[in-house]
Amino acid sequence: MLIVEDQELMRGLLREFVQSGYPDAAILEAADGAQAREACRGQAPHLVLMDVALPDANGIDVAARIKDLFPQASVIVISQHSAEVYVERARAAGAFAYIRKDRVYRELLPTIESALASARAGHGRTQ
User: What is the pTM of this model?
Assistant: First the structure.
């Protein structure tokens, strides 16, 4: 699993929250698009949690690139942006889901479970 989030505090909170639901998961972290690409080169992640606003790239563009390189990876975009255009762009990039940051604690773990179940079943893009 890879968490891509530029804010260190938020990245740590996401890691702890995901680890609470998936204690055996290996979680990599990246603070920007370049680190995300490097982490993917080292180990193809099954699941990527991707922020939109990164200091060196648009997270949706990075998500699309990851999906191109690793089509089996499920990408969940997590952002403070609520405009429908972001959701549409994330879906077009192949994201499994789009979650607003104010809904993370309610929606993230069930969405991760859905993404992993979908991957196990051999399905591609959904939601």
Answer: 0.92
